[in-house]
Design brief:
- The chain is of the alpha+beta class.
- The protein has a domain of about 60 residues.
- Helices cover about 30% and strands about 20% of the residues.
- It has a three-stranded antiparallel sheet with strand order 1-2-3.
- The mean pLDDT is about 85.
């Protein structure tokens, strides 16, 4: 039997019960080195100036770029269905003056 080249490989992904619950995050801090990107998912609460890191994801630069493409594609599809995502207004004001490239990390 001849193998077909360029045929996509199917991947089976298992989602555990704990992971299926998810972790809420309303802020992501991204840093990088030549070898990796680090994304800290944090949660800001009203009136509390300190955010707690809820989860940290470390990936290669190539996988970070794949993530960027996947997010861009999904945002485009979301907006085509539900309309443009508004980042002005109260949510945008929450991040005024915040420099994601230079967060204060404790």
């Amino acid at each position: 039997m001849e193998k077909k080249e360029n045929q996509p490989q199917q991947i089976s992904i298992e989602l555990g019960e704990k992971e299926a619950e998810g972790i809420y995050s309303n802020l992501a801090i991204i840093s990088h080195s030549p070898a990796e990107f680090v994304i800290d998912f944090t949660r800001l609460l009203p009136g509390i100036p300190k955010a707690k890191v809820m989860s940290r994801i470390i990936m290669t630069p190539q996988h970070a770029k794949f993530l960027l493409r996947a997010l861009s594609d999904n945002i485009r599809k979301y907006e085509a269905t539900f309309g443009e995502i508004n980042i002005d207004g109260p949510i945008g004001k929450l991040f005024e003056g915040f420099d994601p490239g230079n967060p204060k990390v404790n």
